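Hey L., structure's done. Input below.
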Amino acid sequence: MQSPQTLTELFFNAVDRFSSKQAAVRYKAGGTWHDITHQELARRVKQTALGLRELGVQPGDRVAILSPNCPEWAIADFACLTARCADVPVYPTLPAKQVAYVLRDSGAVGIFVSDATQYAKVAATRAECPALKHVILSEGAADGPGVMTLQALQQLGAAAEGKYAHYDRDARTVKPDDLATLIYTSGTTGDPKGVMLTHGNFTTNVLSAIQLLPVTPEDSALSLLPLSHSFERMAGHYTLFHGGVTINYAESIDLVAANMGEVRPTVMLAVPRLYEKIYARVLENALQGSGLKRKIFFWAKEAGETWAELTLAKRPIPTGLALRRAIADRLVFSKLRARTGGRIRFFVSGGAPLSADIAKFFFAAGLPILEGYGLTESSPVITVNPVGAPRLGAVGKPIPGVEVRIAEDGEVLARGPNIMKGYYNKPEATREAVDADGWLHTGDIGELDPDGYLRITDRKKDIIVTAGGKNIAPQPIENLIKTNKFILNGVMIGDKQKFPLMLIVPNPDALAGWAKERNLPTEDYATLLEHPDVVAKVEREVMGNLRDLASYETPKKFILLKDDFTIESGELTPTMKVKRRVVEKKYAAAIARAYTED
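Output:
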């Protein structure tokens, strides 16, 4: 069987190749995990696609999907592809106003919504979306013009199957350069832009990525990142489906730990925030234990990380170290692997920089994290660390078919068949992003090492230039503090200022525990954060992690924040990236005071 050239071919080929496999996707309902086979999935996809045709949806139309990860998301996506229309994924965490912006800008004629909660967002702003004619509801019931259930749509399609005898053939007439999807960027700055990705963009990215991230039909994955994001869409949806991997949809982010124990995945994709939380939990459990437990943990951590450094450098392991690591594995690391289900072959990390210290700890525990890099505009993968030769602190080598070079100002440029067709209805923005020679200007600052591994140092727009002319890359500095059990988050500020400062979100549980041991009042957390001993404690913890920075990079002041950044507050994108400008604006008064009090 030839390699697919379009996502439609990818879908049909996978259904044919894995029709005897027990489950294509799995979901949990009523406390039980349920299987959907490839054949059953294909049947529902066909009925949904034909239902869209019966509603009058034409090839080239846009149809939105507003839903968390679930089988219905996959069905809606593949139905749109086989009906030859482009889908528009919408993050289910977005408020109604932002949902309306995406629907209006894309000119979507229809939308799949998961339930009444998501439907309410559409209903509240429907007058602002004149092109929207059809709303398909997966669960529950709702009234309104053009509203119907997914079951009714599939029944409509099933009844019309006789009219579409050439469904498969027609679906396969799609070309690699045809639009597959419009994915709206997270919008860390300005309004989101619709990234036009073609069938060929995605399919070439899948075929290249799978060479470096080998998966088989024996693998099982837990899908937890939003399918609205290009990383999960390409790697956790299309690539895994093409590889025959069983995809298990997590119930929610809060239940990921429980779902890991139930599903026992062999492969998982996540953003650094998940790995940071796992690491912080492990560290906190060790520190809360007895003196002996703490001693064993840190002895094991040191042995494991020394072993990891030598292993990654492909240097011989001394017999004594091998023995210590084996003991460490039995006493500490095996327990961590058990909490992830006990079968993980590798994790994949993307979406933001991963701390090298966290990557080293996971590698020592027998849980390698393969960090990659890319953008929505590149479908998304540009580089990834290969399974056999990961390099901590780097985001890997360019995947097959993709070129990477560093511009004179340090910006990472990429070129290949995965680069977007452009921004929807924004030709000027497209010309700014992709030059005449086809190079995508990523907006990231990076460097290539002698072996061709890419290292990302920061976002071009995030670089802080102090009043003294010093350039500071804030992201690596922010990552340094996230391994500290007393810290949840941090954002560096200081552009055009005499010195940098840092907004710190302390870990309330760890801080309250420390305060109780010292008989400090903990009833009011906001008041606790103002206590001089607490302020001094947090500053000591942060500075301990930042001790190796140059003087001009070191924050001179700290502002302690009571609440962590959230998607709902607008401070995080749906993929957990901090919206730096939003945070800076929200705390502008406190920042101004910190600088004027100097």
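The longest strand covers residues 440-448. The chain is about 40% helix and 20% strand.

-- N.
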